[in-house]
Amino acid sequence: MRVAKQCIAAMPPSAELVGDKGYNSDDLRAWLADRGTVAVIPPKKHRKVKLDCDPAIYKQRNVIERMFCRFKDWRRVATRFDRNIKTFMATIAIAATVIWWL
Predict the structure, then answer these.
(1) Which member of 47, 53, 54, 67 lies 3.0 to 4.6 Å from 43 by CB, making a disulfide possible if both were Cys?
(2) 32, 56 in Cβ contact below 8 A?
(3) Do 15 and 38 contact (CB within 8 A), yes or no?
(4) Taking the alpha carbons of 80, 28, 15, 63 in that order, is the dihedral positive or negative?
(5) Angle, alpha carbons 77-14-67 (nearest 5°)
(6) Would you give per-residue pLDDT tens digits along the chain (102 residues)?
């Protein structure tokens, strides 16, 4: 969860954060609540205390998943060929433009 917190901390706080069951930890949920963000993460089966998850918001997660699958069509993005973050983000921008254009 350390890496997830670092990635999320780099972004401005949002109203909701949608994640899969792998991010279902009390520590991450508490940290998100401190930021003023509602965690939309379904509970794992073995969790003793089942927490609520808004199914309407969670269903929209597939849009993001499909976007990442389209980026993976670009070998350079999928293999993280560019090690410099500026070059990598430029590649993402070019890929997003071409994907949108087509």
Answers:
(1) 47
(2) no
(3) yes
(4) positive
(5) 25
(6) 778 888 899 889 999 999 888 888 889 999 999 999 999 988 888 887 778 888 888 888 888 888 888 888 888 777 877 778 888 888 888 888 988 887
CA separation for the pair 102, 100 (Å, rounded): 6
Q: In this structure, what are the phi and psi dihedrals at residue 38, rounded to the nearest 5 degrees?
A: -90, 125
Half-sphere exposure of 39 (CA within 13 A, CB side): 25
Non-local (6+) Cβ contacts of 88 within 8 A are: 77, 80, 82
Rounded to 10 deg, the angle between the 61-71 and 85-101 helix axes is 110
**C-alpha radius of gyration, the chain, whole number:** 16
**pTM of this structure:** 0.68
Q: Which of 73, 70, 78 is nearest to 100 (CA)?
A: 70
